[in-house]
């Protein structure tokens, strides 16, 4: 097991009592927009450029410190697949989960900031489309919302459990949202992440200012593909939300077998660098 390193936590209190907001960055170590934007917010609060009017803000810029230092997605396990409490925390990420879940339990509002391997516009997940979470998701700055993640893993997870931050927050009745700000290396993802935090602070009244709600294009997740061999490859350099038609060849397996689309739709999270045994890409349909 890797040597444990505790994430840094910053806490700020407003001038008045109010709700508590928790913001995570770098659940995955190869995602830099969360740490950048959260650290910028910390500097803005400490320098009084941002005044917290009410409530408490808990900021964790880097949830997976060792993976972040190495710019690895994870050290031993995907933290966003083992995010729950563990009696036997036999991996570095499970130990992190035991620490970080306590923060989620104690907050009122939770925001998790991510980026992705493929080129993409900003998107958010709505696992439970209740009025509160839909309202929250519409002010983040995303273009698309993804639905059907929990159902997909329950029905077709292919042995992969999805104990993720959103599922944990919703289990504990938190107002919550996850945003994918764009590609890891895209400088604009840092701007999106920072504005997402500002929008969240305004939306819930932690700071002064108004934010506009934005209608999102809704995508329903339908199918998950796991990378089974390091020689499996995508048939082209897919971008997130690239469209395909029924009958199109999407990828090729190591044995030469082609993966052919069974319906018209879009590709989600294509990751040519995926490790064997992990998520390779998803398919979904745009809600009309």
TrEMBL record:
Its cofactor is Zn(2+). Residues 18-192 form the Succinylglutamate desuccinylase/Aspartoacylase catalytic domain. InterPro entries: AstE_AspA_cat, N-alpha-Ac-DABA_deacetylase. One of its GO terms (molecular function) is hydrolase activity, acting on ester bonds. Keywords: Hydrolase, Metal-binding, Zinc. This is Succinylglutamate desuccinylase/Aspartoacylase catalytic domain-containing protein. It comes from Candidatus Staskawiczbacteria bacterium RIFCSPLOWO2_01_FULL_37_25b.
């Amino acid at each position: 097991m890797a040597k444990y390193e505790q994430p840094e936590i910053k806490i700020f209190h407003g001038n008045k009592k109010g709700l508590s907001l928790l913001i995570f960055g770098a659940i995955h170590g190869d995602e830099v927009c969360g740490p950048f934007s959260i650290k910028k917010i910390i500097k803005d609060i400490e320098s009084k450029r941002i005044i917290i009017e009410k409530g408490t803000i808990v900021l964790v810029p880097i949830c997976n410190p060792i993976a972040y230092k190495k710019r690895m997605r994870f050290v031993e396990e995907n933290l966003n697949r083992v995010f729950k409490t563990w009696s036997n925390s036999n991996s570095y990420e499970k130990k992190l989960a035991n620490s970080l879940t306590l923060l989620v339990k104690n907050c009122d509002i939770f925001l998790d900031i991510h980026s992705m391997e493929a080129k993409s516009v900003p998107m958010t997940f709505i696992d439970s489309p209740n009025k509160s979470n839909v309202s929250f998701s519409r002010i983040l700055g995303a273009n698309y919302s993804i639905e059907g993640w929990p159902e997909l893993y329950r029905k077709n997870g292919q042995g992969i459990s999805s104990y993720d931050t959103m599922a944990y927050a919703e289990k504990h009745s938190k107002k919550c949202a996850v945003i994918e700000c764009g590609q890891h290396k895209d400088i604009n993802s840092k701007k999106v992440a920072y504005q997402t935090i500002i929008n969240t602070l305004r939306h819930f009244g932690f700071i002064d200012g108004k934010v506009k709600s934005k209608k999102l294009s809704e995508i329903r997740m339908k199918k998950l593909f796991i990378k089974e061999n390091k020689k499996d490859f995508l048939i082209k350099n897919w971008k997130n939300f690239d469209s395909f038609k029924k009958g199109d060849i999407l990828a090729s397996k190591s044995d030469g077998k082609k993966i052919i689309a069974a319906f018209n739709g879009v590709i989600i999270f294509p990751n040519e660098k995926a490790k064997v045994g992990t998520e390779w890409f998803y398919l979904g349909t745009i809600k009309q």
